[in-house]
Design a protein that fits this description.
Strand content: 35-45%
Shape: rod-shaped
CATH class of the largest domain: Mainly Alpha
Helix content: 25-40%
Low-confidence stretches: 32-36
Order of helices and strands: HEEEEEEHHEEEEEEEEEEEEEEE
Radius of gyration: 48 Å
Amino acid sequence: MRAVIKYVVFLILPITVVILWLAGVFHPRLSAKEIELERKEVKGLEIGEVEVIERTKVSFAGTLIPSDRAEISTRLMGFVSYVGVREGEFVKRGELLLRIDPRDTKAQVEAARQGVVQAQKSYAAALANFEAAKKTYERYKRLLAEKAVTQHEFDMVEAKFKAARAQLEMAKSAIESARQRLKAVSSNVSYAEVRAPFDGYVVRKEVDVGDIARPGYPLLVMEKPPYRVQVSLPEKFLGRVKVGDRLETYVPSLGKSFSARVVEIEPSIDPSSRTFRIKAEVIGKGVRGGLFARVFVDEPTKKTILIPRSAIYKRWDFTGVWVVKPDNTLELRFVRLGRRIGDKVEVLSGLSEGERIVVRGLEKACEGCKVGG
């Protein structure tokens, strides 16, 4: 019996006390409210509210075109002796673009001038012949009245008079023709210098010094700003888009967005494509004709949640956003994305209206962390 008491006192009792101590029996109890986890505080985050829209932007493919475009040519044929512009250069109206060697044209002018002199000499000879024939005709006319000459002799003199008068008229016409030719050839000299027809950009240069310029063949191509975006819209937008409206225009090759003001609307619908064409003047610099552009047009739609592209957190095949909960702590939440609309993305599921998210500084965010100042 004494052995049993020793066993209980020295072995069982100490073990029982240790178990109760480890279980916290001898420690004061704390309520759940008294236990607070220490949370890490994160600063430098930019917080934004989820955007909800009832109108979405639909994009359409368009092309940038200039207000005016000119293929500059010349009337002359000759060697290009000077080219004063480069492709892409902006020039003012009347500025010298290139010069064609005018020596051949000047030789033609001199030949035409000599032609005028020769025609004048021919006219002087014809006039003298006409005056002599006229006097003979008038004398024979009096003699015929006096029956001093035969009718046959008078008819011969009259025929010579009429021929002299015709030759005088021809000589007079030849002078006018020679003068007109001189005028035409002389005007060609002015085409030896090719000048800009308007303020604009030289977008293409077809000749260099030493090349031969040919009449009717383009030497330079110029475009006049401002530039416009031309786009075809479905017929359902007819009446919704009006002159003066502002449309967002994105040019992928430049990586820039521009505002474009509608200046022209085609009033009829193309029956084959069921579209109509509009032109909008692009407000901004750096655009050029022929560039591809995307034009965004507002269209009524159901409520759509949008978030900035900068708010999207990607990790392998996981796509989510950092949500700021009501207690100001962070939660990484999976989202399903839809269309890209400009610099924003449509959220199909995972977010609700009124929720706040981290839009900048995602690399600092952590699960359960508290948002600081």
